[in-house]
Every structure is written in C-alpha cells, then in structure tokens.
C-alpha cells in the first residue's frame, strides 16, 4: 500500500514544493442567521463572575485563608 504524498529531501527540489501543491478549494460557511455574540450576553457575564468568585474561594480554602 503506497502513500499518496511525496518526499522532498534535497534543497534543489524544495522550490518545487509550492508548484506541486494542488489548488485549494474555497469553503463557504452557511449559517442560518447572524452570528450569536456570546460575549454580549448577561449569562456569560454572570458565568465569568461566578467562576472567578468560585476560583478565589477554592484558592483561599486551600491556603487556609478562610
């Protein structure tokens, strides 16, 4: 079973790598609606605040500062 790629070992042939690359195809991302801006939601703000407070509590608990 052979591999589908090629090997380029010498510097002389390294310039040929760009020429041997196949042309890429453009991929379009079709979304049903506008992007949902997650950072502008109250729920995300509350999640970050609760996460920071919980992290502070855990660190204080571990260092016996409570």
Could you explain how this protein is built, in words?
This protein has about 70 residues and is mainly α. It has a domain at about 40-65. Helices cover about 45% and strands about 0% of the residues. It has 3 helices and no strands. The chain is elongated.
Topology at a glance:
Layout: H1 11-14, H2 16-20, H3 42-62
What tags apply to this protein structure?
66 residues; mainly alpha; 3 helices; 0% strand
Number of helices: 3
Mean pLDDT: 81
* Topology order in helix (H) and strand (E) letters: HHH
Please state the CA-atom Rg, rounded to the nearest Å: 26 Å
The parts where pLDDT drops under 50 for at least 5 residues are none
Q: Major β-sheet, in short? A: none
The termini sit apart by 64 Å
- The percent of residues in helical segments reads 40-55%
Given the C-alpha coordinates, what overall shape results? Answer: elongated
Number of strands: 0
The structural class is mainly alpha
Short description:
The chain is an all-alpha fold and 66 residues long. Helix content is 45%, strand content 0%.
